[in-house]
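Each field is set out underneath.
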Amino acid sequence: MSDRAGHSGNELLDLIGGRPGWRLEPRSTPGATPVWCFVLSGKIEFSVTADAGSIRLYVMETDQEIEFDDADGLLTWLRANRAEAVQEPAPRFSSGKSRLRKLFEWG
């Protein structure tokens, strides 16, 4: 994974990691980074990935993909279109580097 893709992955983790409704799902392609899914009422509303220096949001209902340059762009879109997706995360206690962060730091 490139440094820029890793940076985008870390931005994404910082933005949505620990927020209610978000979960990390593996992808079936070997070596592919995991995908974040926002689940509301048992249904996946969005999936979000960080690839090639950008962040991509896929909207299940409309089959639409939206690309953002950074996590700030995604956050702005989520606040305007699905405020439930940006509820404050539960408090986290840090004991060094998290296992999730390590997923985005390859080689």
About this structure: The chain is about 30% helix and 30% strand. The helical segments are 3-16, 71-81, 99-103. Residues 4 and 29 are 20 Å apart (CA to CA). Residues 1-5 have pLDDT under 50 and may be disordered.
